[in-house]
Specification:
Number of strands: 10
Shape: globular
Strand order of the largest sheet: 1-2-3-4-5-6-10-9-8-7
Order of helices and strands: EEEEEEHEEEE
Number of helices: 1
Strand content: over 45%
Oligomer: single chain
Radius of gyration: 17 Å
Length: 155
């Protein structure tokens, strides 16, 4: 689908609600749903779940190799962007954390959190206006993880 157009051949249902504060458009497809929220200033946030979910991450912070995205949230405006991606992988939680520790170090970010809270591993690194945060834990059938990246115009 091209979410910038009003037509998507696999849409089952599309609905739009407009208010003075902006618009909310939801597209439901065979594999999931996407909701796009647009503010009066043109800023947007997009929430995607199911088969249509994708990781809208910068090249220097890729999705964990072999992972499957289960949901994603992307938002921002001209000066800032935030992406939060939930995914599953067969790798151990510690391997996921180690992968993103390496990526954060390569970006020059300094570690601000590294914890194991009852089997939920968490890692956060920051520098200036950039943040990387990862949570990973063993789920029933796979490791479940959430990666958040946020940056302002300087990051």
């Amino acid at each position: 689908c091209d979410w910038s157009s009003d037509v998507c051949s696999s849409d089952l249902e599309t609905s739009t609600v407009s208010t003075p504060g902006g618009t909310v458009t939801t597209r439901t497809t065979d594999g999931g749903a996407t909701t796009t929220i647009t503010g009066p200033d043109g800023s947007t946030a997009q929430i995607t779940s199911g088969a249509g979910a994708k990781a809208d991450l910068p090249d220097f912070l890729p999705l964990y190799p072999g992972a499957t995205v289960t949901s994603s949230i992307t938002g921002g405006n001209g000066t800032q962007k935030t992406v939060s991606v939930t995914f599953e992988t067969n790798a151990a939680p510690a391997e996921v954390i180690a992968f993103y520790k390496e990526k954060a170090a390569a970006m020059g970010l300094g570690e601000t959190l590294n914890a194991d809270q009852g089997g939920v591993l968490s890692f956060m690194a920051t520098k200036d206006q950039t943040l990387v945060q990862v949570l990973a834990s063993k789920g029933t059938n796979a490791t479940e993880a959430q990666l958040t990246w946020a940056a302002s115009s300087g990051g």
